[in-house]
Amino acid sequence: MTARQSRKAAKRPRSEAQPSEVIVVGSGGAALVAALAAADAGARVAVLEKTAQIGGTTGMSGGLVWVPCNPQMAAEGEPDDEAAALTYLRTLAAGRSEEALLRAVLASGPEMVRFLERATTLRFETLDKPDYHPELPGARRSRRCLAPNVFERARLGEWGERVRTGAIYSLPMSWREFDAMNAAFHPERLDLRLVEERFAKGLVGMGTALVSHLLLACLERGIEVLRETRAVELLLEAEAGRPPRVRGVVARRTGGEAVAFAAERGVILACGGFEWNPELVRRFSAGPVAHPLSNPANEGDGLRMAMAAGADLANMYDLLRFPAANIPGELYDGRPLARMVVGERGLPHAILVNRRGRRFVNEAHNYTDVARAYGDFDPVAYEFANHPSFAIFDAQFRAQYSVLGVPPGAPEPEGVLRAGSLRELAAQAGIDADGLGATVARWNGFVREGRDRDFRRGESFFDTYYADMGREPSATLGSIERPPFFALRVGCGVIGTNGGPRTDAHGRVQHVSGEPIPGLYACGDAAASAIGPGYGGPGGPLGQGFSMGFRAGRHAAGETR
Questions:
Q1: Nearest to 55 by CA among 186, 160, 187
Q2: What is the CA radius of gyration of the chain?
């Protein structure tokens, strides 16, 4: 053997002795659903997770899953209408998804929910949260959004400490309990004694609970879950005149050791999006990005591997955006922690303005569509006109509502500007003072009239639900006139991506030639969303991700070589 051959042999990845039939890359919700579906169909399954923690962005989330026609709706005497739901999905997709994908999500959602309640300890409950566009044809005002039951961490043994927990949504309670306290807008109303008691009992809720239920079921079925094992390359077998066949993956473990994992039936990419990879964001996304809010491990691993296999791509321009801000010095996994901005823009006595001091959007509407306004480009100034923006509020707001989780009566978080006049506030923030003064005066006129003539804020049922419901005379309109005045810099946050490898209704990744890549699947944020740019309601990405993961797992388990 020559020295060159010896060096090549030394670099060759070691092969695993026991090949799996299905390899799932990633361990978020969609990944674990895919693994369970494949195992339930009789396949030997392994899950590869790049970090030390299981759960991905799902574990950090509120754990909501949006599923039209879910079986709980019928059980509660309010069955959904499949034709109406399809109409809603078509509208949201805006012609940027295939009919077969929309129908696949709609058909598999209820089946997926029934499967998870049969195969795991998950028990979903419906919530009264409305769809994000409740006035559109086919939308609903409640019950398409499902939430998980709490979980006792001890049931996972040593794995209980390995489940990812979010910095914000990690409370050991059900969403119905959380909503009954209106804690999203009034954290001071949280029952802290209840929270402490449940933490002491080892209970977890929301996204952490959702992942825990799924992980427990995977472990009970003998699914191999490998942590700190980062998939970096697909094992491809060339086929003349056709897309390459995927035979497995090469992964790197802690310390840099490369290991080859064979997959006899298929590899399912479910390892999140690319929002934490600045180069990929710069290359593909349209519009500014300031604050990723998701799992910092979402660096586009699945996207890069799929592209190397010749995958076709879709929806790459459109990220899952969310108005966000950060408190200086706050970190998560060593990266800057961003917080969602909701009440600070949509509750009474608050508005959003740009650097010119002008409002530019209905601040109380759903976050993903509010954040689209950050992509508005001014061709004369040659800049994004609305990014960054500033949440402007006054003493009336501060006396009633929290700011980035800091309740009324406590000092404002670092970074929140405070001034005795709007002009002084504008000078501190770098906002045009005349523009801000005129905008606030116009806004106060709308408040007195009881109607937002510029952006129709408060006219949608959604606007009033996600505000101070029951407040008179308006759940979302309130004047800004009592000093001191405040400004919070708000940027375009990202909770995930909905662009990636294009798949068919079975979750098979499509080659640029138009054919499926044999043995390669994708779901969740690692795939192009089946609903295109659409976001149906709370838990929309998890809903379509779970449904497509369910389909991908079943199909991969049944694929023959």
A1: 160
A2: 24
My answer on whether omega of the bond before 379 falls inside 30° of 0, hence cis, is no
| Euclidean distance between CA atoms 473 and 467, whole angstroms | 13
pLDDT digits (tens, 9 = 90+) for 433-480: 999 999 999 999 999 999 999 999 999 999 999 888 888 899 999 999
pLDDT band at 15 (very low <50, low <70, confident <90, very high): low
Domains of the chain by residue range: 24-227+499-558, 321-494
Q: Following CA atoms 520, 523, 525, 526 in sequence, which dihedral angle do they give, to the nearest 10 degrees? A: -10
- 345: tokens are 């823009």
The CATH homologous superfamily of the domain defined by 24-227+499-558: FAD/NAD(P)-binding domain (3.50.50.60)
Across 213-332, the runs of DSSP E, i.e. the strands, are: 224-226, 229-239, 242-253, 258-269, 291-292, 313-314, 319-325, 331-332
Count CB atoms within 10 A of the CB of residue 50: 26
281/277 Cα distance (integer angstroms): 6
As its CATH architecture, domain 321-494 has: Alpha-Beta Complex (3.90)
Phi–psi pair at 510, nearest 5 degrees? -95, 135
Give the closest residue to 54 by CA, choosing from 171, 218, 239, 231.
Answer: 218
Nearest Cα neighbor of 478 from 382, 404, 360, 394 is 394
C-beta neighbour count of 42 within 10 angstroms: 10
pLDDT in tens, 118-145: 999 999 999 999 999 999 999 999 999 9
Tokens at residue 491, please? 């940027």
CA distance linking residue 214 with residue 208, whole number of Å: 10
Task: Report the candidate in 532, 555, 537 with the shortest Cα–Cα distance to residue 95.
Answer: 532
> Which residue(s) pair with 226 in the sheet?
48
Distances (CA, A) of 549 to 157, 237, 319, 340: 26, 24, 20, 27
Residue 240's SS3 state is coil
* Pair 181, 190: CB distance under 8 Å: yes
Residues making up the chain, counted from first to last: 561
Residue 527 one-letter amino acid: A
Q: Which two tokens stand for residue 434?
A: 């005349």
CATH topology agreement for domains 24-227+499-558 and 321-494:
no
**Could you tell me which of 17, 15, 33 has the C-alpha nearest to residue 552?**
33
By the 8 A CB rule, do 420 and 324 touch? no
Q: Which H or E run includes 187?
A: none
Q: How far apart are CA 534 and CA 543, in angstroms?
A: 12
Peptide bond into 484 cis (omega under 30): yes
Q: Are 481 and 444 in contact (CB under 8 A)?
A: yes
Q: Band of the pLDDT at 2, cuts 50, 70, 90?
A: very low
Q: Read off the pTM.
A: 0.95
**Residue 272 backbone class (left: φ over 0; alpha: ψ -120 to 50; beta: rest):** left
